[in-house]
Design brief:
seven-stranded mixed sheet; binds zinc ion; five-stranded mixed sheet; D-Maltodextrin-Binding Protein, domain 2; binds 1-O-pyrophosphono-5-O-phosphono-alpha-D-ribofuranose; 300 residues; 3 domains
Amino acid sequence: MKNSEQRIKIALQKSGRLTDHSLDLLERCGLKFTQSKDQLFCYGENMPIDLLLVRDDDIPGLVSDDVCDLGIVGLNVVNEKRLALEADGIDALFDPVFELDFGHCRLAIAAPDDTPFADAASLSGKRIATSYSATLGDYLQRNQITAEIVYFSGAVEIAPRLGRADFICDLVSTGSTLAANQLREVQTIAESEAVIIQTRAELTDAKQQWVNKLLQRLDGVLQVRESKYIMLHAPRAALAEIKRLLPGSEAPTVIPLDGDNGRVAVHAVCRENVFWETLENLKAAGASAMLVLPVEKMLA
Ligand code: PRP
Ligand code: ZN
C-alpha cells in the first residue's frame, strides 16, 4: 500500500458558500494544513488527513467512488446525486454522517416578478430551468405535474431573461441573487444545510480510527458553538427558579459563598445561546454578578 493511500482524503467545495466554513470547522478540530500553490490541495501536517478542494457537485461522486473517504457538501447536492444515480439504477455508495449546522439554504422555485403563480399546478406545461434536474423531476412527479425541465449547469437565474424558461428552480440563501434578477421565490421544494458524508467502502483500521477521532471532534465543535458558560450569584431560595431559567443546562454547580447571607454561586454550561432577555429574567429572579463566557472545547 502506498503511503498516500493510508491518508484520509476529505473533499470540500473549492470556492463558494461552504468553503470558508468547512476549512474553519476542520481547523477547530485541530487540523493544521499547508495549502498547495493552486489551492486545490491541503496537506494535513499534524494528522494523516488531506483536503481536496473541488466543485461541490463533484463531491458526492468522489466519495461514492471511494476517491475520497469523507466529503463536506450541501444536502441539496447529496440528494440530487442520489436521485440521479437511482434513476440510472445505481446505489449511491455514501452515507450522510451528520448535519453541520451551517450553509442553511433552500431549493426553491422562483418566478419572474410579472409571472403569476398560485400553487404547484401553475407550473403545469411550463419550462423550468435548473441544475437540480433529478430533485425537481422528483418534486414534479410527486405533485403529478408535467413540466419541461431545462438543464443549466450554472447561472440559472438568467434563463427567463434569455427566453429559455418560464420559471427557475435554484438554491436560495439570502435571496439577493433572485432579487438582482427580478425573480421572486414562490415555492420551497427542499431545505438544505452542509452535511458530512462518508464512503461505504471499508477503511483500514488505522484510517477508521482517525475518521472516528475526527467525527468525535467535529461533534464536540458543533456542541460548543452555541454553548456558553454562565456564572452568577443568587439567593439560595431562588435556586429552583434560576435553574429553570438557564437555557439548556444540566445539573448546574452550586457553590456556597464566603459569609453566606443565604446566597450561592451558580455555574452552568448552557447548550444554547444566552440572550440579554435571559439575563434580565435571571436578574428579576434575584441573580446578580452574572458572567457569560464562550466555551472553547467540550468532550463528553
Ligand atoms: C447558489 C445559487 C445562487 C446563490 C444563491 O449557488 O445557485 O447562485 O447560491 O444565494 P443567495 O440567495 O444568497 O443570493 P451555490 O453557492 O450553490 O454555487 P454553485 O451554483 O456555483 O455551486
Ligand atoms: Zn454547485
